Amino acid sequence: MKNKILPFLVIIIFGIIFFIFYKGLEDSKIYTPDVNTKKDIPVFNTKEFFSGENVNSSSIFELDKVYLLNIWSSWCVPCRQEHPLLMNLNLEDNLNIIGMNYKDNLKNAESFLKELGNPYKQIFIDLDGTIAIEWGAYGVPESFLIYNNEIIKKYIGPLNQELVDEINLFIK
Amino acid sequence: MKFFKFFLIVIILLPLSSVNSEGNDKRNEITKNLRCLICQGQSVYDSDSEFANSLKIVVDKKLQEGLSEDQIYEYFKTKYGEWILYDPGLNKNTYILWLLPILIFLIGGAIIFKSFIVKK
Q: Could you name the CATH architecture of A39-171?
């Protein structure tokens, strides 16, 4: 009797192991960021883009206002794509678009804004990419919808019309 | 006199270089355990991407602030999730990974015990 249980047990255990590994194959091997969890915005010191003055993040983001933080750079091609959408979003009164200039040459960034327009209420600089890490970002462009000092949603990659509609829905 | 000056400079610089390398050692050790999120299959230490370079700066800053290795891992975990760590902790997604070797060891041990020791 005992000898019959043992092979049976071994088969079951191997079956379970096989199932677990098989399930593991289906998991994504690419980093998939958590975009929907609400998180408090980080506190950091930075410099204002045009004036070069030191600013603290608490003076940028106020309570009870909706912000869209957009990480951009003049060397980033998808940023060019999404820029007209940001210009449109800027027409909304309830939304304040804040720019974070990521690892950029300031002259190039200025001519980028001259060429395509400036949708940002305020821009601050992230010269070495460390502020982007504070935000949990890992590339450009990335946008964060912020309300009451909380990140409501994270948009990885360039914005498209569908996402803009979603943002419009939130601010109305 | 020249020799003495040279000797003095070497004496002053020696401990400095070792202090610096100690900081770098720690940084390298930590960045080897962090996954570069935009370059799959590479650690932050191995990668030269924009993201990895910024991450190295952040690790340096955190070390200077006096954070321990575990605190730095915890910091990155809150920012990017468990995925950024190469050495995952015990949680609901990884408990099988941790418990399976122990389970196999126990079952194997039981089989050996039964078939060899009990038979005798």
A: 3-Layer(aba) Sandwich (3.40)
